[in-house]
Each structure stands twice: as C-alpha cells, then as structure tokens.
Amino acid sequence: MSISKSTLEILRNVRTSDVTDALDSLGHMNTYEMDPRIRPLFPGIFFAGIAATSEYRVVNNPIPQLTYEQFDDRQYKKGPDGKAAPDALWTGGSKMGATDEVQVIDTRQSRCGLLGSNNVLDAKILGTVGFVIDGACRDSGECIGQKSPVFAAVRSMRHMAGRLELASVNQPINCGGVLVHPGDGIIADDDGIVVIPQDLSEEIAKRAWLVQDKDRRMRRAFYEKLGMPMDDTVKLEDRPW
C-alpha cells in the first residue's frame, strides 16, 4: 500500500510528537523512532516524504600516491551523464531523487562523508525533500548555508572513495535502529525522525492531525490568556478529511 498524496499533505502539517502519539495509540510505542544520535545539521529542519533507501558497506581500498591529475581523474571524473564520480557512486550509477522522496541511507555508522554540499543539491533538483543518513555528512558548513535538509549521525571531512561502496538500492535497510522499507513515510523535525509504515500511514496521519488540532486549541487558549500574539503554530484549520 503506497502513501497517498492526501496522507502526505496531512503529515506535512503535523509534528513528530503528534506522530509518535498516534503510534502509541495504535500499540506501537518506541517502535519507529530513529536513534536520537541522528540529528539535524541546523535547527528548524522539517520534512515529510517517502523513503528511498540505500545501503553501503565499509571497504578499505587505500589510494596510492598519485599526481594531482591522476587523483582528480580517479575521484572527480565526469561520467557519461555529466555527473562527477562521487555522485554516481552514492546513487549507484543512476540518478537518485524524485518528487517527495526522502533519501534514507545506512553506511554502518561510517565516518565517510557520503553526503556533501554537491550531491544534496543535485538530489534536491530531482525532487528530494530530505536526507537521513546513519553515517556522515561532509561540507557541513556549506550544507548549512544552503539550508540543505540533512539529518546525520556524524560530520566528517572524509571522502567516500576507497572507504564505502554501494550494497543495495531501494531494499529494506536498518537506519537509526529502525527497519525502513522503500515507500515508508519519513517525518523529521527538531525532536527527531519517525518512520511511518505504509500500511498504517493513513490512520497514523489522521490520528496525528487530531492530536495536533487539540494541542493547537489548548495552546491558543494559553496565548489568549497571556496576551501573546497568535502565530502559525496555533492557527486553526478545517479537518482535511
């Protein structure tokens, strides 16, 4: 069962806390929350989308001493599609990224910077809305400046070449201690990351919206008593179903 556009739109109007409450109500306490060591590169990142998964294995293929031209050819030579080699490697030689996708990546907690300031932009052009990596992001300063929506376990300066190789694309993986299937929902904000199983997605989204609606009404009443100006977090909306 795939996640519908209408369900995805509901998920984009709730919080991870609402989703975990919904999961609790369905008997899934502490089941789909990723390890909190996977954190946003900067505060305020929020996304909800559909998981596209990839898995990498750690290898040890040291680079011998090379001339710079040899090194540049090895690391950054453009492929037939015009993409630099690192991007082709991390996407398995094909373009990865489609509308509403969240790239969910397991690198066995490696310190190799599989994500970086270049390939996150390339994937965004293709429609990716977020990145979750149980591993490292490099060029983190540039990624932050670009407002790239990355959750990573580690920041690192290391390149992946000679250290990681692709093991699978769009197969079930373990990321952050949670089994993620391609097509599952992913929601992430400052509190963390939650996986939303496809077969439960509609019910989870509806219950999460109800939790959020009740919270907005309660907080709105406090705003009024305290004389605080209203903001988007207490804006009341019609039920979307």
Automatic annotation (TrEMBL):
Gene3D superfamilies: Ribonuclease E inhibitor RraA/RraA-like. InterPro entries: RraA/RraA-like, RraA/RraA-like_sf. This is RraA family protein. Pfam families: RraA-like. The lineage of its organism: Bacteria, Pseudomonadati, Pseudomonadota, Alphaproteobacteria, Hyphomicrobiales.
